[in-house]
Amino acid sequence: MTFVLLTYTKRLMSNKQVTIAIIFHSGYGHTKKLAEAVLRGVNQNKFSSYLFYDVKEAQTKWNELALADAIIFGSPTYMGSASAQFKEFMDATSKNVFYKGFVWKDKLAAGFTNSASRAGDKLNVLLQFTVFAAQHGMHWINLGLPPANNSTTGSENDLNRNGYWLGAAAQSDADLGPELAPSNSDLKTGEHLGARVTTAALQFKYGKE
Questions:
Q1: How many CB atoms lie within 10 A of CB 179?
Q2: Is the Cβ–Cβ distance between 197 and 110 less than 8 Å?
């Protein structure tokens, strides 16, 4: 009886799968590098599959996105806002998602952003994402890390070194290319976000075990 139960449980586990979509815009390559870090976090979980689209391609993939269990949004912070290209994608969801039957309702959502300044009004972009997700009836997943690098024992190597709660926020010096920035700690923070969203999606879909 015990052997049969264990076999059944393993079969249930092997059938589990969640699909995590990552949609991003990157003007100079830094935000794409952060998006790739988020993807590495997603891929840490053997029960995950992924969709990885820039905002232009995403606007041709509405049917695929409708099947995702979670969508993680990423944009650089330009002048205190998501980029114009990402906003174009957001506006396109009105016709292709919202008025098609609220089809993203009850999916999970999360977000990440990058700017040249340490603060750079990145919080405005993460708030913009949370309102956008709420308009689609999605459930927002926060970063789930305490702020770091805020005492004499902290360092630039800490995860969440920039001290954000709503999502992953990276900083890249304006005169450094994406081969050198964002920092490794910011990329590891992005990985953490991807892994956290994947775990949350599995729990939301199948329950805690």
A1: 7
A2: yes
User: Two tokens at 12?
Assistant: 């249930």
- Dist. CA 191–CA 187, nearest whole Å: 6
* Cβ proximity of 140 and 126 under 8 Å: no
Per DSSP bridges, beta strands 81-82 and 139-140 are unpaired
| For residues 45-70, average pLDDT | 98
The alpha helices in 43-153, defined as continuous H runs, are 55-58, 62-66, 84-96, 122-135
Contact 195, 145 (CB under 8 A): no
What the block records as the tokens of 74 is: 């990423």
Cβ 44 vs Cβ 50: under 8 Å: no
CA angle 201–127–188, rounded 5-degree value: 55
Q: Is the model's pLDDT at 20 over the cut of 80?
A: yes
Strand ranges inside 57-208, DSSP E: 70-78, 81-82, 108-115, 139-140, 168-171
- Across 27-46, average pLDDT: 98
Question: What are residue 140's DSSP bridge partners?
Answer: 109
Hey, how many other C-beta atoms are within 10 angstroms of the C-beta on 106? 11
Among all chains, which residue has been given the structure tokens 């603060």? 119
> Would strands 81-82 and 168-171 be described as parallel, antiparallel, or unpaired?
unpaired
Rounded mean pLDDT of 14-42? 96
